[in-house]
Specification:
The protein is of the alpha/beta class. Helices cover 25% and strands 19% of the residues. The model is unreliable at 1-5 and 414-451 (pLDDT under 50).
Length: 451
């Protein structure tokens, strides 16, 4: 149970994405003072990075309840609830208006990167009186100043977008991966828009089996129709991409089901080359191309490509939390009690049970990982899950134990979901996806890409 004597200090929320701003909205409703720190120049900076991608779910499922109440009080006009927004739509029509509400704008600092979090006046090894101490949050401002802030609690909603997994199959970068950085296009390049010239008439290697990979593959297939010489190789570490094909027409989110159907059709038609059981061991820049060496199902892997889309997933940045006592699962790198609920070897995004503050708490009381960062290396995060996480945490910080424990969430089944899809443009889990007991309660699903 959370018990604070530090009520005069704010709760620092790290990140002004959908989940971070939702946390601020729920805290405000509970009479708890938030302070939101965002490294980017504006709200939703990570979402803006994949602004060309369209979400799986319509607007009605992409807006947090407390955030909507704040917006409604300003006369905000909600988007068409049946439309599927892009990432850019989500920022322009939801996150920016939410950040501009008087309640949030007075408590939001942009251009402020968090460098470290620690208990105020106590390093990690000190136990005496630890629970009575607040948190010291070290920040770097846009003008280069290092400043310390003191908080009663910290909610880390900073996401994982800036920490991609490496291409090397062992969890380590492939030899030469650093030198090959200019050839890496990131997980979600705008193939049909701003980055078209990088891929048109050239050979691209896409590595990964999540929806980021699928989104890019389908965009490349479309590009090849109008740009002769566009060649696509798809590399997966497993023996088959079958899981990515998902539930097809049976999926409860039609846009998500369409992803697998279209990708399977493109593969069957020979519009891209699939290589399985791939282990990339070395990258060697060679002028306009980069040589890719490693192993695959049929033996040695040797390719020369112009660009590599490294859709290999993400991992949390835990270095900034080195002085916080965390209980983190050694495999998934999520809060330990959450790990067994989200292990991607067992779960898709629709089979994760509801969970709240009790599951997300750590040995240092008042510190929480939420949103995609709470899922560690698991690619199964859904936006609705993050909204319920911060609702529960806000209740706990306000002293409402019953409200914190009353977690409720409805998620659609069928299909898999990690980050995104393509349906008349890019698309994603409104951002970022086997059998298990699921608790279902009334309430809509909401999905997101890697935020």
């Amino acid at each position: 149970m959370v018990g604070f004597v530090r009520s005069e200090q704010p709760v620092v929320v790290i990140g002004a994405g959908p989940v971070g701003l939702a946390a601020a909205a729920h805290l405000l409703e509970r009479g708890v003072e938030p302070l939101v720190l965002e490294a980017g120049e504006g709200p939703g900076a990570a979402v803006a990075s994949w602004g060309h991608v369209r979400l799986f779910s319509p607007w009605r499922h992409d807006i947090d309840a407390a955030a909507r109440r704040l917006l409604d009080a300003t006369g905000w006009v909600a988007p068409d609830e049946d439309a599927l927004p892009t990432g850019a739509d989500l920022v322009r029509d939801y996150l920016e208006p939410l950040a501009a509400t008087p309640a949030i704008s007075a408590r939001l600092r942009t251009g402020t990167r968090v460098l470290a979090v620690a208990r105020d006046g106590a390093d990690k090894a000190r136990s005496l009186g630890r629970a009575r101490r607040g948190y010291r949050v070290r920040t770097l401002t846009a003008d280069g100043r290092v400043q310390d802030l003191v908080a009663r609690a910290v909610i880390d909603a900073s996401g994982t977008w800036s920490t991609s997994n490496p291409l090397g199959a062992s969890g380590l970068p492939a030899i030469g991966e650093g030198d090959a950085a200019p050839y890496l296009a990131g997980p979600l390049p705008d193939v049909l828009g701003a980055h078209r010239d990088r891929f048109a008439g050239r050979h691209t290697l896409v590595v990964g089996t999540g929806h980021s990979a699928a989104n890019t593959l389908l965009s490349l297939v479309e590009l090849a129709e109008s740009a002769p010489g566009t060649t696509i190789t798809w590399a997966v570490r497993g023996g088959s991409p079958r899981r990515l094909f998902g539930g097809g027409a049976a999926d409860e989110l039609p846009a998500r089901g369409l992803l697998g159907t279209r990708l399977r059709a493109a593969l069957d038609a020979g519009r891209l080359t699939l290589v399985t059981q791939v282990s990339i061991e070395q990258l060697e820049p060679a002028g306009e191309v980069v040589r890719v060496r490693g192993r695959a199902r049929d033996g040695a892997l040797e390719l020369e490509v112009h660009a590599i889309v490294n859709a290999t997933g993400f991992r949390p940045d835990l270095d900034m939390l080195r002085e916080v006592r965390l209980d983190v699962d050694p495999v998934v790198e999520s809060p330990a009690r959450l790990a067994e609920l989200i292990d991607p070897n067992v779960h898709s995004c629709g089979t994760v049970p509801p969970h709240g503050e009790a599951v997300l708490s750590h040995p240092d009381d008042g510190f929480y990982l939420v949103g995609t960062k709470s899922y560690g290396r698991a690619p199964t995060f859904l936006l609705a899950t993050g909204y319920e996480q911060v609702r529960s945490i806000a209740a706990a910080l306000a002293g409402d134990r019953a409200g914190a424990d009353a977690v409720r969430l409805h998620l659609p089944g069928t299909g898999v979901c990690s980050t995104d899809l393509e349906v008349g443009g890019g698309s994603c889990c409104g951002s970022v996806p086997e059998p298990h007991r699921v608790t279902r309660h009334a309430g809509p699903p909401a999905f997101t890409a890697a935020t």
